[in-house]
Specification:
Layout lengths: L2 H28 L2 H151 L4 H8 L9 E7 L5 E4 L12 E6 L5 E11 L4 E7 L11 E3 L7
Antiparallel strand pairs: 1-2, 1-6, 2-5, 3-4, 3-6, 4-5
Length: about 290
């Protein structure tokens, strides 16, 4: 039974007692009031006993209600404390989320910067690879040129050795001839001067292949295989763009396929160029 039910029962019992009293008064006027009074006293005693029981139950219910209220208040306080703790945790989590978002933003910015840096590094790597490839190609070309130069050096060394051998042989022969000439009562120098000629034994034609910066020393495309010897003189001229006479060249060094000479005449002081013509005689261009 609930507390409200018990209160209602008590109220009903009170009203019942009142009605019973009224009934007793009414009844006593008509019957033996003493007997009825005794009877009603017994009933009142029983009702009071029941009222005491109901009152005890009501007190017990009140105590239970107060205990329930205390438990409820404690539960509410516990719930409030738990709610406060949960609110603190929520605030802490919100702060952590905000910090995390800030960290994520910073990390994204860092990633973007890193990506830009990586792209720049990639471009630099491509440029460096191209440069390295170019340098490697140049190095390969230099190695090839070095090999060619080494081969040319070996060839020149062999030619020098042959020339030195020929020079030694010629010196020995010249010494023998000079001894023979002196034995015949002649001067070797006079014979050499008479034997030299500034004109080649036959017509020679060639081109200028190299010119020094002073426009004095020339290398030409004909040599001893073409009949040139040291002391020969050649005319220098060109046909294009207009025919021009440039001067005279005296041969100072001769090889089989080329010769070197000194410009002994350049009346107009014109610049001699590679491709200009040299010949013993200037002939009309055919």
């Amino acid at each position: 039974m609930t507390f409200v039910g018990k209160i209602l029962v008590i109220v009903i019992m009170v009203f019942s007692v009142l009605f019973l009293g009224l009934s007793v008064v009414v009844f006593s006027t008509e019957t033996n009031w003493k007997a009825e009074a005794s009877k009603h006293k017994t009933q009142v005693a029983e009702l009071q006993k029941k009222i005491g029981q109901f009152k005890g139950e009501a007190d017990n219910a009140t105590a239970q209600r107060d205990a329930a209220k205390a438990d409820a208040a404690k539960a509410v306080a516990d719930a409030q404390a738990k709610n406060d703790r949960l609110q603190q945790e929520i605030d802490q989590r919100a702060k952590e989320i905000q910090d995390t978002r800030a960290s994520v933003g910073t990390a994204q910015e860092s990633v973007k910067l890193a990506q830009n840096e990586a792209a720049r590094r990639t471009e630099e790597a491509v440029t460096l690879r191209e440069l390295l490839k170019k340098v490697q190609n140049e190095a390969d070309a230099l190695k090839l040129r070095q090999t060619e130069l080494n081969q040319e050096i070996l060839t020149l060394k062999r030619q020098i050795e042959v020339a030195q051998g020929n020079n030694k042989d010629l010196r020995e022969r010249v010494a023998i001839l000079q001894t023979a000439v002196r034995g015949a009562g002649l001067s070797p120098d006079n014979i050499i001067r008479r034997g030299r000629s500034s004109v080649a034994n036959h017509d020679v034609e060639g081109e200028v292949t190299k010119v020094d910066t002073r426009n004095k020393i020339l290398e030409i495309s004909v040599g001893s295989d073409d009949g040139l010897v040291e002391g020969n003189e050649l005319e220098i001229f060109r046909f294009t763009p207009t025919p021009e006479y440039l001067g005279r060249l005296r041969i100072t060094s001769v090889d089989p396929d080329h010769a070197v000479g000194t410009v002994v005449s350049n009346p107009q002081g014109k610049k001699i160029k590679e491709g200009d013509n040299v010949a013993t005689k200037i002939r009309p261009r055919g």
